[in-house]
Amino acid sequence: MAKQRMLQFVNVERDMPEKRPPDLRAHDFNEIYAEYATEKAAEQAGRCSQCGVPYCQSHCPLHNNIPDWLRMTAEGRLQEAYELAQATNTFPEICGRICPQDRLCEGNCVIEQSGHGTVTIGSVEKYITDTAWENGWVKPAAPSQERPESVGIIGAGPGGLAAADMLRRQGVQVTVYDRYDRAGGLLTYGIPGFKLEKDVVMRRIDQLEQGGVTFKMNCNVGDDITFAELQKTHDAILIATGVYKSRELPAPGVGAQGIVRAIDFLTASNRKSFGDKVPEFDSGELNAEGKRVVVIGGGDTAMDCLRTSIRQGATSVKCLYRRDEANMPGSMREVANAKEEGVEFVWLSAPKGFAGDTVEGVMVSKMRLGAPDASGRQSPEIIEGADYVEDADLVIMALGFEPEALPALWDVPELEVTRWGTVKADFRTHETSLPGVYACGDIQRGASLVVWAIRDGREAAEAILDQINAAAQVAAE
């Protein structure tokens, strides 16, 4: 009788890959989780209950076929597992590393709800795809027939790259334009190496280039090339710029030296990991070494800044957040990792100003949670008379991101935007107000998760294919 591979959650406890001790990992930018051994990956995948209605799949933005590739992993059919994972997700090894599984697939696992501990979906997904790379199963696009149609993609982040991959596999000519010197967007310069080592991103970029995607780097649309020129060059355009404009905090002293933006701080750190010359880092402006660091914000970007500061050798690292831990938007797993590494969280605290021409401290108002706001979250209220100063040599503002004013930057006033400044586009076809122009990812939906950008990019690619196929059919008639 064949051994029962699945439904082992009653007999086998949840077991994450080994995590490096905090006192070791806090001194480097290597990923903190080890890789599963083959036997352990099969064992943990076998804990899946093979639900008739898989909530893990329905709560994944990409609707990955999680139960089936878990079963294949448990049965040792790893190449089939990879092919199934890749069928719905362009970058499964990246999502396996950085998706907040505790809020998505794993957070909705049925056996978690029954008290047995969730299946370690993200770690198995990472294992499957890393194994595929090691065995040469990951292949560049090799379309059976080249097409004459051309698509220009503005932005080399996860949304743009996902669309580029899908379009190239159908033989479409794809050119990606990006303002930076390396592709990847926030995957390359925004997310620290301890969550996503950079060779993982770079090998995907190499694969896309091998598959025929053309990259034009250091190319700023609006300066180096106009949007009108792109429209003349390509049959369709996909706007996938992301959102990079940092939200500001209108408070006294906010312009003081030593108050920096999260994106600048993280980009400098990641550039150093590539071996680049970074004068702002070397001068100490964007370097936490020897400093009392205060990070303002409670999202995943704030967690990245906190944990990066620890690794750079800060003397103390504190996070100010205006709500309590239960109402924090960042991943609970990231909060736990930050605490282990020595970060101090100061809950129910909001900045009201900054002391010193070169920052010496943050003036803090203590808060309490009052009545729920329109979203259902309790609104923070100031406790009168409880203000104090939090000493700081470096303050990192991690308050989120907003879209740049693209119609003005690109001289295309007819490109419609929402009242939030995001590009107005259909959420199914991703078509904008301009014929043949599409948008995807954060520039359409606002600052969100990498997995949503991948989904948007794939959907936009399908819509673009529909458009050029329809145009080709009309031309043939």
UniProtKB/TrEMBL annotation:
EC number in record: 1.4.1.13
SUPFAM superfamilies, sorted: alpha-helical ferredoxin, Nucleotide-binding domain
A molecular function GO annotation: 4 iron, 4 sulfur cluster binding
Gene3D superfamilies referenced in this protein's UniProt entry, alphabetically: Alpha-helical ferredoxin, FAD/NAD(P)-binding domain, NAD(P)-binding Rossmann-like Domain
Domain of life of the source: Bacteria
Keyword Metal-binding (UniProt): yes
Domain Dihydroprymidine dehydrogenase: 25-136
Alphabetized Pfam families for the sequence: Fer4_20 (PF14691), Pyr_redox_2 (PF07992)
Occurrences of domain FAD/NAD(P)-binding (ranges): 151-457
Enzyme class, UniProt record, top EC level: oxidoreductase
Alphabetized UniProt keyword annotations: 4Fe-4S, Iron, Iron-sulfur, Metal-binding, Oxidoreductase
Protein name: Glutamate synthase [NADPH] small chain
Lineage: Bacteria, Pseudomonadati, Pseudomonadota, Alphaproteobacteria, Rhodobacterales
